[in-house]
Amino acid sequence: MPLRYLFGPVNAAFAEQNLQSQRQAGTCLAFNADGDTDLTIRPADTWDDVRRRLPDGWQPDFLALYLPYSTVPAALWLAPLPRVGLAPDWQLLWHFYRRCFRACDVVLTDTLGAEVAAREGFLHVRAANLCGCERAFLESPLPDGARDIDFLFVGNLNSAVQRERMPWLSRLARIGGCRPGKGDAAH
Fold this sequence. Notes:
about 190 residues; Rossmann fold
C-alpha cells in the first residue's frame, strides 16, 4: 500500500499544478491555512484538531513540509510523524532553514545546498531536484511551425540573488553572436 502524506503549506494553484495525481490517488492531502486546498490547518490548531479534519479512515504516514516562504503550523512540528522538509532556495533562506532542518527527519534541497548543509553538520539533508514544469506546461500541446528560439532563459538575473547566471548567459550569447541585452530575435 502506498504511503499517505500531508503536503504543505501550499496554495491551491501549487496543489493543482504539482500534486494532482497524488491527490487523486488518495495518497496526498495538500494543506494551508486559507481553506482552499484539501485540508485547512491554521497556526493555532493542535495535532488533535488536524486529525479530526482528516477524511474518515485516512491517516498520514509522514509530513512533507514545503518550507520556503511559508509558516508551518506549530502542530505539525509536534506531530508524532516523520517530517520531510522540502527546501528550495536554500541560498536565500539559509538562516531560516538552519532552524527548520533540526526538526525534520530528512530534508531535500539542491546538490550545493545539501553539500553546504553537510558542512554545517546537517547530515540528514539530501540532494533532490525540487524544480520542474507544472502540469499546465506538460499537458499543453507543442505549437506547430518552425522553432525560432534556440536558447531561452526565464529567471532572476539579480546579481545579489543569482550572481552565477549572468556569466553563463554571456557564454550562451557568444554562441549566437550577440551580447545580452543587445541581441534581437534574429540571432
